[in-house]
């Protein structure tokens, strides 16, 4: 669930109960964990993180809020690595292009 909300895998693995404030409905990211024992944890939770950030971006969350949600200081990082266009975004672009292309074709006739 936390990965679907955009947390990094290392943040989810490092979360402790004392970091959770149920009354305030907040969590504090105070620790990260990328190793268990002597082995690195190999987790593909970044796919869920990317889906979360793409969903938020596609539903009108402003860029500066999106970056803050992701824990980034630079909006460009968030948009470059995590916000991916989906099929519906591309369909909208194709419709727009068809309007331009169709108008040019009709004008030539």
Automatic annotation (TrEMBL):
Record flagged with keyword Repressor: no
Domain of life, per lineage: Bacteria
UniProt KW keywords: DNA recombination
Gene3D superfamilies: Intergrase catalytic core
Tyr recombinase domain boundaries: 46-86
Pfam family membership, one: Phage_integrase
Designated name of the protein: Tyrosine-type recombinase/integrase
């Amino acid at each position: 669930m936390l990965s679907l909300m955009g947390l990094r895998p290392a943040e989810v693995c490092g979360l402790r109960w004392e970091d959770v404030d149920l009354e305030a409905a907040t969590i504090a990211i105070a620790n990260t964990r990328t190793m268990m024992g002597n082995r690195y944890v190999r987790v593909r939770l970044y796919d869920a993180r990317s889906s979360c950030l793409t969903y938020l971006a596609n539903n009108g969350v402003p860029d500066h809020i999106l970056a803050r949600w992701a824990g980034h200081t630079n909006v460009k990082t968030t948009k470059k690595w995590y916000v991916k266009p989906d099929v519906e975004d591309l369909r909208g672009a194709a419709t727009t292009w068809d309007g331009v292309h169709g108008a040019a074709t009709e004008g030539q006739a």
